[in-house]
Amino acid sequence: MALTGGMFASGHTTPRLGIDLAGGTSITLKAKADQGSAVNKANMDTAVEIMNRRVNGLGVSEAEVQTQGTDNIIVNIPRGTNSKEAQQQVGTTAKLYFRPVLASEPSGAAASPSPSGSPSAGSSPKPGSSSSPSASSSQKASSSSSTSPTSSATTQGRAVTDALKAGSSPSPSATPTGGPSPKPTPSASGGTDTAKLQAAYTALDCSNQDDRAKAGNNAKPGDPTIACGKVGKGYYKYLLGPAGVDGTEVKKAQAIFDTQGASGWQVQMTFNSTGAKKFADITGELAKNQAPQNEFGIVLDGEVVSSPYVSQAITGGQAEISGSFTQQEAQSLANMLSYGALPLSFQEQSVTTVTAALGGQQLHAGLLAGAIGLALVVLYLVVYYRGLSLVAMASLVVSAILTYVIMSLLGPAIHFALNLPAVCGAIVAIGITADSFIVYFERIRDEIREGRSLRPAVERAWPRARRTVLVSDFVSFLAAAVLFIVTVGKVQGFAFTLGLTTVLDVVVVFLFTKPLMTLLARRKFFGNGHKWSGLDPKSLGGKPPLRRTRRPAGPAAGPVDPKEA
């Protein structure tokens, strides 16, 4: 009663359904080696673990992530989840780098006429990102955004060329020289690679989706590269220096809402000791430069997600990324950063959607199979045990109610979801539960065959039946536990349900079936052995009733038969 009341009080009156019953999305991903990583069992297992953490971080429950073959991963996402977002999360490698910005400017339709002149302290801020240390740090970077990369702010021709040749962030002494061009100009000493990179930057149109996808492809962390980033409704293109900090050095990332300022949703990062030192060094160097070379680009999978500028070194190992994020965007970025980069790249092979209608048909088929199995068990009990079948059916009903209530409560508690294999486990459990009743009934019948009346037969049969039931259920539970541990995916649903119903079988037999038999033994219908009770001594071939007699005292009594009742 307490469990049933808890179910109604919680509002979860039906079990949660898995993807095969409620519908959902199934994604097949094919692994491919990435920058020397081999497609092996260790890397595949690592990828499965990371994907599991990512989808769980989205609040997805009963999502299944498992390997198939040697190079495929199957991700099953239940209906009611943002499958598009989860689809992006599971396959994203999340390669994060912090790169110094050498040059940036609006791209495509967002580009505006380039006025000439030198940058000034009063340049208008670009809507986008800022970076700040934790509140506990004594130093604080500028809370406003980086200056707009117009021609006056990005005329870094000489400085950029020197930075590219040096293979690091621009020299602190480099200052803009003015001029009409918003991009770095190649120099003779820049080399062929520098000229190619500058040419690629000049030709890059970030408003074009194909250009955005190809920008910075196969760029190594230690080399300069180009990239695109979305700012507001438009796009900016960036020329970036070698990576100063790797995303693997981010210890923790979480989305927070800035209640004190106007930044809105932010991503707060905590670096490990190595990353904290690198971050302090690079922000210290960037703070000496003029815009836009005082910015660092936060590059996630080749895309600049934020380009905050730095006014002073950020120490303390903590920083915040802000940039007009929505809650979903901030949580998505923090989720990927927290759970690390996948060791392999994945190519989406197929996306299959299971509709709720198909799931409903499968559920109907499963319930029909369960009803048929239950009907056959009841029919056997009625034919063979007659009146005792009422006890068995009442026990089955109690067991079914307990199973239903617990499954409903386990949905919100541990994200348990009922799938087809779990339904199969429940159907198998019908036979296991009925077997326990049969063991007890047969022990009672054996006692009646020995000539005992029902009341003592019920009590004498219970110890022997109890041992048998416990041993039988222990073996079933052990098999379910081993199956749950060594298997993955939907088979675990079968094992979990089988183990749960086995435990409930012990509870029902001990706390319901045995007390009920004790009560019924006092009723004339059962106690007198009515022919329809299933306990008729004549039909069972019982001996004459055993009666206790007084033995004569003394030697005349003779030896006592040890088998005498």
Structural write-up:
The protein contains 17 helices and 14 strands. It is α+β, with helices and mostly antiparallel strands and 565 residues long. Among the domains are: 24-93 and 348-354, Alpha-Beta Plaits; 97-107 and 205-326, Gyrase A, domain 2 (2-Layer Sandwich), CATH 3.30.1360; 356-540, Up-down Bundle (Multidrug efflux transporter AcrB transmembrane fold), CATH 1.20.1640. Strands 4, 6, 7, 8, 11 and 12 form a six-stranded antiparallel β-sheet that branches. Helix 1 packs parallel to helix 12. The longest helix is centred in the C-terminal third of the chain and has 33 residues, at 454-486. The chain is elongated, with a radius of gyration of 37 Å. The two termini are 42 Å apart. 43% of the residues are buried. Residues 105-193, 535-565 are annotated as: Disordered. Residues 44-101 form the Protein translocase subunit SecDF P1 domain. Keywords: Cell membrane, Membrane, Protein transport, Translocation, Transmembrane, Transmembrane helix, Transport.
What's the short version?
This is Protein translocase subunit SecD. 45% of the residues lie in helices and 17% in strands. The chain has 17 helices and 14 strands.
